[in-house]
Amino acid sequence: MTLVKEPPGRVRARRPVAAPALRRRDRRDNLAGYLFMSPWIAGFLLLTAGPMIASLYFAFTDYNLFTTPSWIGLDNFTRMFADARWRKSVEVTAQYVVIGTPLKLLLALGVALLLARNGRGQGFYRAAFYAPSLIGASVTVGFVWRALFSDNALVDRAQSFLGLHVGGWVGDPEWVLYCLAALTVWQFGAPMVIFLAGLKQVPRELYEAAAVDGAGPLRRFWSVTLPMISPVLFFNVLLETIHAFQIFGSAYVVSNATCGPADSALVYTCYLYQKGFKEAQMGFASAMAWMLLLAVALVTAVLFRSQKRWVHYEEAAR
Question: Any idea what the Cα angle at residue 205 is, between residues 210 and 312, rounded to 5°?
Answer without folding.
Answer: 75
